[in-house]
Amino acid sequence: MHEYSLSALSPQNWPFSLECLPKGAYLVGGAVRDALLGRCSEYLDLDFVLPADAVKIARQIADRYQAGFVLLDAERQIARVVFEQATADFAQQEGFTLAIDLQRRDFTVNAIAYNPHTGELLDPLKGYADLQQGLLCMISLANLQDDPLRLLRAYRQAAQLSFTIEPDTQAAIRQLAPQLARVAAERVQVELSYLLNSSQGSLWLKTAWEDGLIGAWFPNATRASCDRLIRVDSAVTVLAETWPQLGIELAQSVRDRIKTPLSAIAKLACLVAPNSKLAEEELQRLKYSRTEIRAVTTTLKSLMHLQTTYLIDQMSLQQQYFLFRKAEAVFPALAVLAIATGTTLQAIAPLIDHYLTPNDPIAHPTPLLTGTELMQALQLKPGPQIGQLLTEIALAQIGGNISTPDEALKLASWLVNQQ
Question: In principle, which of 84, 204, 273, 328 could form an S-S bond with 155, CB 3.0–4.6 Å?
Fold first, then answer.
C-alpha cells in the first residue's frame, strides 16, 4: 500500500499481550500517525477501537496486569488502562464498521487505523497522503462543530508535528471560532499548555489569536502581545546560551506537580491583561492553579516595578534588593519578559549574575536575625514592626554597614528607640 515503518506499533512493545484483544481490534489515532512519521516516544500513548465490550476488555487487562483502570465514558464505552510506561485507551466502535468510526474523527491524519493482528493499515480518508504533505485536513465541518476543542487542537498538532493547516480547514476554524468559548476551561487549558510549553507553539498561538480562536479566553491579548510571545522564545534562547543555569531554571516547573515551566509563565503574562487583578480573573476562568496564577501576577508586578521605577543599569543595591524580594522565585520569567519587552541583555546582566550566585546578599540574603530572635531579645510583640526591622537590618547588611548578629541587634534596638 505505502512504504512505511510500523515497528514502533509492534505488540511486542506494548505493556500487555496481543492475545488480550479480539480480532476486530484496531490501533488508531496519534500512535499510528506518529509511527508513520517516524516519531517515537519512551512513553506509549495507545488508542484502540474495539467492535464490542471495550470497557469489559479494558478492565480485564487492568486486572491481569495490575494496572490502573479509569472509566472515561460509560455511555460511549470508553475506558483507560494506565501502566508505568504507557497509557492505553479502549473505545467502543461508533457505527457498524470501523470506516464509519474513522469518519467521525477530527483530521485525516488521525483517522488511519492499524490492525495489530495482520499488520495492515486501513486508510479510507487518505490520511497518509496528508501526512506526506505535512497537512492537517478536517474530515468534515460537522466533526469540528461536534467538539469545538478540535479547533484549538488543530493549532496544537500543527505545532507539534511542524505541519500546516489546510486552507479550507483553517477557514472552517475561523467560522466556528466563537464556539470554543463553550468548551470546558480545563480542556482548553490542556491544549494551551502544549502551545505555551514549546517554542513552536508561539507562532501558532499568535495565529490562533488572529483567527479569533482564543480572544474569548484572553480578551486583553493584542497583536503586540502575541508578537511578544515569539520574542519570549528568542529571549529564552539567548539567556540559556549566555547563562546555561538560567536556561535550566526556565525549563523547570514553577512548582512540584505543576507542569507549567517558568518560560510558559512568561508567555502567559504576555496574553493576559497587564493589570494583575484582571490577569488573575482571566487565569481563574481558565482553571489555572493558585500557584500558577501567583507566578504570572508576580511576574507582571515585578515587570512593572522594573520598568517604571528604575533605569535598570543605575539601580542602587537597595532597589535591587527590593526587586528580588518582589520577584522571588519567578525572577527567570521576569528576566525573559523584560528582554522581550525591550530591556537589553547588558542592562539586566548584573541582576542575573546576582540571582545565579548562591548566597548572594542581594538576591539570596542570609538573615543575621530571625523575627523570633528579635522579639525575644527586644521583648517585642508580633506585628508589622518585626518585618520592618528585618528589612532595615537586611538593607544595612547589603550596604556593608553591619555583618554580625550582635550588630544587627544593636541596629534594631536603636531603631526601636527612635520609633
Answer: 204
Indicate whether 351 and 392 sit together in one domain: no
- Per residue in 63-109, pLDDT (tens digit) is 999 999 999 998 889 999 999 999 999 999 988 889 999 999 999 99
**Residue 114 near residue 121 (C-beta atoms within 8 A):** yes
Q: Per-residue DSSP letters for 166-185?
A: -HHHHHHHHHHGGGGGGS-H
Contact 80, 69 (CB under 8 A): yes
* Chain mean pLDDT for the chain: 91
Cα separation, 26 vs 170, whole angstroms:
30
Question: How far apart, in whole angstroms, are the C-alpha atoms of residue 154 and residue 109?
Answer: 11
Q: Is residue 271 part of a domain?
A: yes
CB 36 within 8 A of CB 134: no
> What cell numbers appear for 197 in the block?
510549553
Q: Are 29 and 62 contained in the same domain? A: yes
Same domain for 144 and 125? no
Q: Is residue 224 part of a domain?
A: no
Task: Please give the model's pTM, rounded to 2 decimal places.
Answer: 0.87
Give the Cα separation of 210 and 381 in Å (integer): 57
* Domain coverage including residue 399: 371-418
Interatomic CA distance for residues 28 and 234, integer angstroms? 37
Q: Are strands 26-28 and 258-261 parallel, antiparallel or unpaired?
A: unpaired
> Are residues 115 and 75 in contact, defined by beta-carbon separation less than 8 angstroms?
no
Q: Which residues contact 49 (CB under 8 A, 6 or more apart)?
A: 25, 26, 28, 91, 92, 93, 98, 101, 113
HSE-CB for 134 with a 13 A CA cutoff? 7
- Nearest Cα to 117, choosing from 204, 270, 11, 218? 11
In percent, the amount of the chain with pLDDT more than 70 equals: 97
